Amino acid sequence: MGIYRKASFEAVAVAEIPVLYRVARRLTLNDAWAEDLVGQTLLQAAKAWESFDGQFPRSWLIRILQNAYRHDVRRANRRPKEVAIEDHDAQGEDLWQELSGRIIEAHIYEELDKLPEEYRLAVSLCDVEELSYEEAGEAMGIPTGTVKSRLFRGRRLLRQRLATIQLGAE
Amino acid sequence: MEGLLNRAADGSSKGLARWYALAHAAHCSGCKKFLDNLTRMIEQMRREKQPPVDQGAVDRLTALVREVGAVESATEQG
Q1: Of 1.10.20.10, 3.30.365.10, 1.10.10.10, 2.60.120.260, which CATH number belongs to A101-169?
Q2: Which of A2, A29, A150, B58 ranks highest by number of CB atoms within 10 Å?
């Protein structure tokens, strides 16, 4: 049984490295820090693998990664540089504007990286990594309803930022 | 309505909720634009996952996983 589970850990962990790296990169906005964080995550996960129930392994790994990230932030008092964003909800003028595919293709990731962490992570997990709301909730340690509110708000902020770029380009 | 449109755009709603969102958007130009934009944004992120993963980092992390597995195996056998 022990040998079977260890082999399973290796298979699961290796397959999840690209997803973990992208999520780590999106949290830290830094390549070296992202790699270091994934390394920490894999070591912690290997130790905890025996007690893991096997449900939602991707969410489980991302949760470990997120905890390691928070630990790093607290310990070294370092945080990725985020751009303060304005919420145009009250104006609502660009909410319904048609966005061109060209603007979306060219700027979506650049603008996603500028969102505050909680929204950036929700959009990243649900839209880039294609986790269900439930899996994203497991990964972030929050209820499904909170995942939805962060995701919908994150998408709205992203759309507004893209609309602002489009207005500037016209 | 925004929640229903979000769930229609990412494919998480089914049945009546999905039908209602799509039927509404078909008759409301604002919601149609909203739904189209959102669908396009989500499709773009799903299609082209970013940032690209550095292959060197993947190789180093894979080696780390294998090393940990080998150490655990040796500990268990020893």
Answers
A1: 1.10.10.10
A2: A150
